[in-house]
Amino acid sequence: MERDVFQQTFERLKTQSGLTDAEIARRLDVNRSTVSRWKDGTISPPLSKIKEIANLFGVSPLEFIDDSVEENEVRNTLKKALPEGAIPVKGKSITVPLYGSIAAGVPLEAIPVEEYIEIPEDVGSWYPYAFLLRVNGESMNKVVPNGAYALIDPYNGEDVGNGDVVAVQVNGYEATLKRFFKLHNTVVLEPDSYNPEYVAQNFTSPETQNLRIMGKMVWFMSPPNAKF
Q: One Pfam family for this entry, by name (predicted)?
């Protein structure tokens, strides 16, 4: 990988984002001096770190990669470990756990896996800890249809933004999908449906304690046995 390619791209995206060296270092869990050395071209990060940097700036990792690098080398290095319990299968796919529903207050690891479902390897490698959740209902049918399998990237405390579709538990009920918005001291869970009967739910500061975000929807698929 050419240092000039990474340096120029990193410097451009850093300027556009407005993030400081200290903030980038904190988010990527590296020393501030490392960020400074990336910026001045003294060093470049390993390919395995490129994905985290790309995610931070909201771009493809390939923006940092010189065209002369072999495609297979890039793909193989950027690919992260498979999800725990994933079973490699032929045809560039992996399997991830499917949960029919997630009851409130129950840790994910304590919930029985309904079955393992194949998803494309490219998708699974981006979200190594993701799981599938069956969509029940029509409250998000503009985005994901009833009965589909939604791939959920587990919540890590800081990666949910306004407008993201999240799997969330409300007041002890099973996890549901809604668009997430945080406005001052209020959290809004908004449906995205063709049915006008579904309305947004607003939660003020004390009430947000009754919300549990399980993760963010990053992809969805039809069930393997779906009939069209």
A: Peptidase_S24
